[in-house]
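[Solved] Which block belongs to which protein?

Original post:
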Amino acid sequence: MTTSTTPGKPRRRIRLWAVAVWLLLWQLGAMALNQKILLVSPVQVLLRLGELLPQGGFWGAVGFSFWRITLGFLLACAAGTALGVLSSRFWPVRDLCAPLMATVKSIPVASFIILVLIWVPSRNLSIIISFLMVTPIVYQNVLGGISSMDRKLTEMADVFEVPFPRRLRYLYLPQVMPFFRSACAVGLGLCWKAGVAAEVIGLPDGSMGEQLYEAKAYLSTPDLFAWTVVIVLVSLLFEKLFLFLLDRLGRRLERG
C-alpha cells in the first residue's frame, strides 16, 4: 500500500475518446462471449441502472455507505494530522507511532476487516476500516511536510516573535498543504475500496456492499456490474468535490 506521494497536483485527464474505446471493447467482448452470466454489455448495465435509480432501497444503500465511509475518511484526516503535528514536535510520540503505523500498513485489509468485525458491529465496520487505512497515509505525509519546511523561515518567525495564529496561516499551512492534499488524493480512493470490501464481508443491512454480495450470490451479473459502476461514480464524485474544496482553501491561504 502506497503511503507517501509527491506533493503537488499532477494533471490526470480522462479523454472521452479513450473511454469510448474501452466501452466499445467491452461491448464487443460481451457480444462475442454471448454469456450474460459471465459478462454483460454496457447497454445492459445502463438499463439495469435505469431500473435501480427510482427505487428507494437504491438511494438508501448509497446513503448508508457514503456517510459511513466519508466519516471514516474525515476522522482519519483529523487523527493523522494531529498525530503528524505531535510527532514533529515530540520525539516520544513519533517513536510510539512508528511501530503502530508500520503495523497498520502491513496487515492485509481482509485481515483487518475480520479482526475488527469481532469487536465492532457490522453497521459501523466500514467507518473503522476506512479510518485505519487512511490514517497512516495522512500521518506520514503531514509529518513529511512539516519536516521539509524551510527552517530559515521558522527561525525568522522565532526571532520576530510572530504569533502562532499568523504562523499557522502564513507559514505552516501553505507549506504542508501540498503534502496533505497528496495524502487525501491517495486516501480517498483507498477508503472507498476498503470500506466497500468491509461491507461485502460484514454484510450490514442496507449497504452497497450487501447489494454486491447478493448480486454475486444470486449470479445477477447485471446487478453486480451496475452496483460496481455506482460505487466508482460515487467515489469519484466525492473525490473531485473534496479536492476542489481543498484547493479553494489552499488558494485562499496563498492570497492571505
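(Second protein starts here: sequence line, then its C-alpha cells.)
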Amino acid sequence: MDWKGIRVSPCNLCPRECGAKRDEGGRGFCGMDERIYLARAALHMWEEPCISGTQGSGTVFFSGCNLRCVYCQNYEIAAGERGQQVSQERLSEIFLELQGLGAANINLVTPDHYVVQVARAVLTARENGLKVPVVYNGSGYEKVEAIRGLKGIVDIFLTDFKYMDARLAEKYSNAADYPQVAGAALKEMVLAVGEPAFGREGMMQRGVIVRHLLLPGHKKNAKAVLDYVYGTYKDSVYISLLNQYTPLGRLKDNPGWKELGRKVTKREYEEVVDYAIGLGVENAFIQEGDTARESFIPEFDYQGVWKNGSGMEVGLWKE
C-alpha cells in the first residue's frame, strides 16, 4: 500500500524509515502494523480557539507514534497500549459522524504512521458529503514527501516544533535530526496550504499553526524555535505557546526526571511570551491559568469509535 511515493510496507512513511513489513504484521518504530487503531473520536474543546471554537473540534486520536517523547502527555496511546482496530471505511464514516455532531473540523491527532489510509479515508468521506476542514495534528517529525502528498486533502496543519537544540531532541525524543526534519516539513506545510484564512466566528479554514510546548528549564530552546519560525515565516503562520507541560509520575524512573519533574513556572512562561512579543509576533495564542493538569488529558475510552457505542472490547489490541 503506497501513496505518492511513500509506502506502508516496507515502511518509509516517516523519517525513521524503519522498513518494517507492516503488511505482514511487523510493527514499525511507531509500534503499529498496517491496521488502523483509534483511542477516541469525539468533539474536543481544548485546542486553540480557532480550531475548537464553541462547537468543538472533531478529534480522532490514533494509537502509536513515531517520536515517542519521554515526557509524552498521551503516553497510553503513543505507546500503543490502548486502541481499537477500525477499517479504512469505518474511519471515513467516523469523519462524517463527527461532522454530523457539529464538529468545526476533523482533527487528526498523530496520524503520521497511518497517512496513506487517512488520506484515502478523507477522500472517501468528501465523496460522501464531508465539508468541514481537515486538520493534521502532528509532532512536526514528518517527511516532506508525506506532507506534499496531503496537498488538497489537508486544509490546516496544527504542528509541533519541539526543538531547535539537537541535543535535547536526541535526549528526549531519540531524534537528533528533529530540527532539520521539522524545518523541512514546516516549509512544505506552508507551501501546501498557503496563507491563513478564516471563516465565520474566526474559525480557521486554511493555514498553519505552529505549537511549541515549553519544557521546564528550556527557555533557550523555546526562544530558538521562535527565532526560526517567526524569522522564516513572519505572519504566514500562527504560533501557539503552550505552558501545559505536566510531569507525569511514570517519568520518575527516567534519567530526564531531574529536569522534567516539575511544571513550568509562571516566570519562565512569561519570559518566553515577552520574547515573542519583542520579536514582533502578533499572530499567536498563549495560555493562561493552570493548564498543567492531568484533567486536560482526555479519557482514551474509545468514545465514537463504534457507531452504536457497543463492542467496546472488540478489536482491542494489547500485547
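Accepted answer:
You had them paired correctly. Confirming on the second one: The longest helix spans residues 178-193.
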